[in-house]
Amino acid sequence: MAARTPIPGQFLSKNEDGKPWDQSSAEIKRRHFVLDGHKLKLFGRRGKTYKGHINLLAVEALRPSTDATAPPGAFELQVRASSSRSRTCILLPDHSVDDVFMALGNAVPSDATSDALWRIHMGSRPAAAAAGPAHEYRMGKTLGTGTFGKVKLAQRVADGELFAVKCLNRARIVLASQSGRLAKEIRLLKLLNHPNVIRLHEVLHTNAEILMVMEYVPGGDLLDVLNTQPRFAEKEVRHIFGQVVCGVAFCHSLGVAHRDLKPENILIKRSADDGGGHQIKVADFGLSTLMPAGEFLKTACGSPHYVAPEILNFDGEAKYDGREADVWSLGVILHVMLCYKLPFEAESTQLLYARIRAGLPALPPSLTPSAASLLHGMLEVAPERRLSLTQVASHEWLRLQSETPRLSQLVDAVVAHDPGALEALAAASAVSGTAFDAAAAGGGGGGAGAAAAADSGVRRAFTFDVLPRAFSTSDISPAVSRKDSREAGAAAAPSRLWEPRERLDADTPPASLPSSPLATRGAAGPAGGTVPEEFALPASGPPPANGVVVHGLG
User: Fold this and answer.
1) What is the DSSP letter of 302?
2) Sign of the torsion formed by the C-alpha atoms of 459, 321, 524 and 118
3) Is a pLDDT exceeding 70 seen at residue 25?
4) Which of 97, 133, 274, 398 has its CA 20 to 30 A from that of 25?
5) How does 224-259 read in b/e, with b if 16+ C-beta sit within 10 Å?
6) Of the candidates 115, 50, 118, 63, which has an alpha carbon nearest to the alpha carbon of residue 91?
7) Is 122:534 a contact under the CB 8 Å cutoff?
8) 164 and 298 together in one domain
9) Cα-based distances in Å from 500 to 62, 222, 284, 342
10) Is 203 a domain residue?
11) Which of 81, 113, 145 is the last residue of a domain?
């Protein structure tokens, strides 16, 4: 809810002894809510006639509605009218509820917003000094910066484990009307628990910031590795790409379409437990969405060089399957890893989109026939003829064979068609069943437990107990370290191939995109980065001189 952006909804103002919602039909009014500084201005049914305002500095409490008869999602402001009296104002916005909440939470006194509202809308808890060490973090170096804040390295006080903390400025998020998108990203990340997907551990908030405590990936992103490391052999590309496919297939099994897959959003680290191979994490779910079965998406979003051709329609009439669009983006990533260049490049966005619609150009003759076949299948312009993710996983070049999960760990939340029901469904009991094809995009299931899930309209998914067999590094030559590559000479490492590209945010027409290929990364960047050698957080003791301790409630 940006300043002076009207949001329609229902409004009821009553005294302390006023009638409940279900008995106040005559007093419930249609209003347009406009935040202007520390005033919540109220306009009439059509948004033109000024009806008064609420002084947000006089708000004593912002909380979920205490009126049991009020509709779900309503929240109330307890406003001080005089030294002895107060009024209760119940708001029920028609849409953009998360944006309205964040805007009001930024404007009312800092101690007025209830923790219950923060849990409902942002899935967070307060960063309070009374917390125990299990939720305390020492803040260290800055790993990256973005539009809404910074990513900092942090150390958990209890055990010394390192995390990447996204420190997002609340005021900037409100001004950009991105509260709803942030809330959706948090909800989706809480669903995902998989070895190849970045993990969100918890979310904290302070008076000025929202802190997302993410899994820390020390190796940086795939784009940096491609630009600085020796060229990958085809076996190493297969090893890395297989993990990416597995992580994205897991997301698809939950009904989650990523919609912004690109090398910058794939984090990579050397795994000491896997013979020196690479472990992959899919990150940055800022443009992701839940896709109910049988429905299509309309919002144009993604990154220009990786966006699928069916999305390139800005008249609001294009409909597409986000999972099919993800397969196209994965095809571009595979082309980049095998050929070390983007398949579609141009000096302007209009020409770039024309080349994307024209389809894949000629491939280098050095590619093996099976790799070329996979690229042609994934970069098929017509989505109905494009390979599905299940077909990609079983393609002769990849042959992704997964271990059958033992169904021992239920994902942190259960996916329902209604995102608002996630909190209630998160405590659902584990399903007792047999086989679950976690590499398949559809995410099937078996047994009585799966049948019960289908009857209830709820889809469940499970984590891997072990990584797929295809990820074994026994047949992969050891990767060359940075030190070894420097000793081998400058010719061993390729020159910098390309730079991060601008992200195409929702509803952005092509004319407004920057013409320069250089651009910043997404908001606050991915939760990864390379830690300078001279920086090492102490395992115990007081925080560093330039650090702070962030506390979170248990």
Assistant:
1) B
2) negative
3) yes
4) 97
5) bbbbebbebeeebbbbbbbbbbbbbbbbbbbbbbbb
6) 63
7) no
8) no
9) 41, 11, 14, 12
10) yes
11) 113
- The neighbour count for residue 163, using CB atoms within 10 Å, is 19
> What's 369's domain CATH number?
1.10.510.10
Q: What phi-psi label fits residue 417: left (phi over 0), alpha (psi between -120 and 50 degrees) or beta?
A: alpha
- For 215, the token pair is 């899994």
Specify whether 184 is located in the same domain as 201. yes
Residues 132 and 195 in one domain: yes
Instruction: Centre a 10 Å sphere on the Cβ of residue 35 and count the other Cβ atoms it contains.
Output: 23
Same domain flag for 192 and 263: no
Q: Is residue 430 part of a domain?
A: no
Considering only 66-70, 248-252, 311-315, 474-478, which range has the smallest mean pLDDT? 474-478
Copy the structure tokens of residue 372: 């070329």
Per-residue tokens: 458? 């709820």
Question: Which of 378, 399, 420 marks a domain boundary?
Answer: 399
Query: For the chain, how many structural domains are there in total?
Result: 3
Q: What is the largest CA-CA distance in the chain?
A: 83
**89 and 129 fall within a common domain:** no
Which position has the higher pLDDT, 421 or 81?
Answer: 81
3-state SS class at 11? strand
Segment 372-391 mean pLDDT: 94
The pTM is what? 0.69
Residue 108 CA to residue 105 CA, distance in Å, equals 6
Q: Which two tokens stand for residue 149?
A: 């804040």
Domain enclosing residue 248, as ranges: 222-399
* Judgement on whether residues 254 and 302 belong to the same structural domain of the protein: yes
Which DSSP string do the residues of 383-396 spell out, in sequence order? Answer: TTTSPPHHHHHTST
Give the pLDDT mean for 94-103.
88
Q: Is the pLDDT of residue 503 over 60?
A: no
Q: How far apart are CA 470 and CA 295, in angstroms?
A: 33
Q: Which has the closest alpha carbon to 480: 337, 277, 336, 335?
A: 277
Give the model's pLDDT for residue 161. Answer: 92
| Residues involved in catalysis | 260
Alpha-carbon separation of residue 201 from 106, 163, 165, 411, 549 (angstroms):
24, 9, 10, 13, 17
Q: What is the mean pLDDT of the chain?
A: 74
Burial group, residue 473, by CB count within 10 angstroms (0-12, 13-18, 19+): middle
Q: Which helix (H) or strand (E) holds 125?
A: strand 125-126
| Among candidate residues 189, 5, 10, 168, the one with its CA nearest the CA of residue 100 | 5
Residue type at position 80: R
Residue 438 CA to residue 464 CA, distance in Å, equals 8
* 273 CB neighbour count, 10 Å cutoff: 7
**pLDDT tens profile 339-365:** 999 999 999 988 999 999 999 988 999
DSSP assignments along 70-90, one per residue: SPTT-EEEEEE-SSS-EEEEE
The angle subtended at Cα 6 by Cα 511 and Cα 109, nearest 5°, is 115
* pLDDT score at 196: 92
